[in-house]
Amino acid sequence: MVYMQQPNKKAEQQPALKKAIGVFGGSNILIGIMIGSGIFYIGSIVLQRSGMSMGWALSAWLIGGLVTLLGSLCFAELGAMNPATGGIYVYLSEAFSPVVGYMFNFQSMIIGGPGSIAAIAIALPLAFKSLFPMSNVLVKVIAIALIIIFTLVNYFGVDTGEWVQNFFNVAKILPLILIIVLGLFWGHYTPHLAVLNQHGSGSVVDYIQMIAFAVIATLWAYEGWTNLNTVAGEMKEPQKNLPRALILSVGFTTIVYFLFNLAIYRALPFSQIQHALTHGQLYLGTAVAQSFMGKFGTILVAITMALAMISSLNGMILAFSRYYYAAAKDRLLWKQFAHINRQYQTPDFSLFIQMLISIALVLTRDLDELTSLVVFSGAVFNMLSILAVPVMRHRQPNQLRPYKVWAYPWTVIIAVIAFLVILINNFVDDPLTSVLGLVVPAVGAVVYYGFRRFYQVRE
């Protein structure tokens, strides 16, 4: 059974999703999701995992960006070949089986999308808890309000959601550029960039394990690069604009992460960095801003973090809601999920159901556990999507491909190996969570066959 997203005559009378996203808007959706509050603290984790070697840490950022770029090139070929709303769901359904695509979609609908939305919504007020003391109840109230507000923003049209995304992205990038410029050009310290472990010499295997562990941390920062393909059906000229937006956004994000961390190494002495990390103070970007601008620097970083999280939240709400829509179009969810608002041309029912699930997750106590469950399964489906490139080239050799992966098949091979390292590392580190992360997709397979049987009986 080959996945096909072809509407029937009745569906053709229904309003369609509006094609309003261009290269700039598409790039901003991904940049907004990828560059969140993590830019201020994940660099510290990468440095710690690199044995406090600045050279290895910066190398890890470049390697992580390269791995992400290789994956995005594969997604560019798949998205340009089939620019349908649904992203990974579409590619896995076509390359392997509709049930594989639905397993991914199901975990994204139940935990992946709403869990990420809930987590970022809670993280935003928590980031200001030290400046403005607030109770846990107030934190959750603010988080719920944020989810409702930005769901409404995206309900009033994809172009409205795109405009909001563009505004907050530009607003958050400018302070980041300021910190980068101050650190690089006015910093007084020369970072030691030799790729040597601070603890002395080690074996080649030790270095490989160390850098692999550090790269995994950078991939957390790059997470979200798959989400533009989810709204490919709403892009203008997706065959051209989707690959361009993917390459531009991943390339820009890699440069920002690399320069931001280099600026930290230029602005702060190594002894201060070491002391801060030893005492659990991971927000080195804040220290840089304080060193140059005093209290104003602290306020500037706080504002930038808020803007970063808002743009990330808005991008997630826009992208994740399309999973429900794509499944309903294939009659693997109730038809209401495929409903398009006639006035605003957005999947209104999917947006509001996603909002309700996200709010329910905000109200739970174990959000961290919930969101961590999808890490392992997310890597599995990303790897399968990359493998869909050679599978589709074999199954559909004559299919028009407006864009083809550079350096094929090495691009696919390297990307798959990288994700295998992530899977193995996660499984060894936390086997129970990894196994549980596959339970939801397995339940999705049961739901898939249930819906197929339901519609067969009705027909």
Task: List its salient traits.
mainly alpha; globular; 18 helices; 459 residues; 0% strand; disordered N terminus; Amino acid/polyamine transporter I
> How many beta-strand runs?
0
Give a quick account of the main beta sheet: strands, pairing sense, barrel closure. none
Given this structure, which CATH class is correct? Mainly Alpha
Radius of gyration: 22 Å
Detail the poorly predicted runs.
1-12
Number of domains: 1
Helix residue percentage: over 70%
Shape: globular
Gap between N and C termini? 18 Å
Give the mean pLDDT.
Answer: 81
Q: What name is given to the CATH topology?
A: Amino acid/polyamine transporter I
What order do the helices and strands follow? HHHHHHHHHHHHHHHHHH
Structural class: mainly alpha
GO molecular function: L-amino acid transmembrane transporter activity
InterPro entries: AA/rel_permease1, AminoAcid_Transporter
Membrane topology: Multi-pass membrane protein
Subcellular location: Membrane
Protein described:
By secondary structure, the protein is mainly alpha-helical. The protein has a single domain, classed as Up-down Bundle (Amino acid/polyamine transporter I). It has 18 helices and no strands. Helix 8 (158-186) runs antiparallel to helix 13 (295-329). The radius of gyration is 22 Å and the shape is globular. It is a multi-pass membrane protein.
